[in-house]
Amino acid sequence: MSKQEISDQQQLFAYQQIMPLFPQLFNDDVSVAIANQQKFIQVIPNSNLPINSNVGDLVPDGGAVHDALISGKTVIREVPAKVYGVAFQSYAFPLINQKQTIGVLVVGKSLNRKQQILERAQNLATALSQTTTAINEIATGAQSLNENNQDLAKTAEDTTNKMHDIQKVVSFIQSVSQKINMLGINAAIAAAHTSDSKSAGFGVIAQEIRKLSASTAKSVSEIEDVLIEIDQSVNSFSSKLTASVNTIGEQSAAAEQVLASMEELNETAKMMENVANSL
């Protein structure tokens, strides 16, 4: 054997001595192995990460170990769960001696924890997205309801103004009623100062005028009572509507704040997903 062959063997042997320490460097389940230029010379499997290689097995063509031997460069590949039943990341590090690749140190790191974190991050992102959509709909609905209530408040204000206009008309009718009553009184006085043949006619006219005045006054009074009730109802409705508008406005503002917070959480969830992908 040449000195180089001995040196190669010694170097591979040195790696074999420290190989049992490699699993302690990772937080995930790992399996490690060393291969020379032809076959695996040491394998340290993990019960949670079975690998289909044993000491003495030839290095298979097309695998990460084979490619690292040929290229002399580190080869990193992700192996899906369908291959060995569990997904893992494969790291094949070429072992160099005197500028020659003499073997490969391969580490298989379980992706179980990464997938769990990624799945949770994706679930969180989905839940946050759905919640954000729901809150956005609530905020939009609250805004629409607030606008409708403001329209109702404007209608209530217009109704109050119209009530005041009606009250002016009623006051005018009441004034006319009082004048009619005065006409009736004047007619009665005139009847008292005329002859008997004429007084009867004035008396009937005076009586009818006074009846009309009394009927008008009664109607005006009833209308006033109804208007007072309507005015009270409108004022009560307007007060409650104003309180409702204020409450909905506050809820809409609160929903906007929650929506902003949800957007921040969405960004955090995306960051978690990116971190999980980088593990």
TrEMBL record:
Residues 115-279 form the Methyl-accepting transducer domain. The keyword Cell cycle does not apply. Keywords: Coiled coil, Transducer. Signal peptide: none annotated. GO terms for biological process: signal transduction. It comes from the Bacteria. One of its GO terms (cellular component) is membrane. InterPro entries: MCPsignal_dom, Sensor-like_sf. Residues 111-162 form a coiled coil. Gene3D superfamilies: Methyl-accepting chemotaxis protein. Transmembrane segments: none annotated. Pfam families: MCPsignal. This is Methyl-accepting transducer domain-containing protein. It comes from Liquorilactobacillus nagelii.
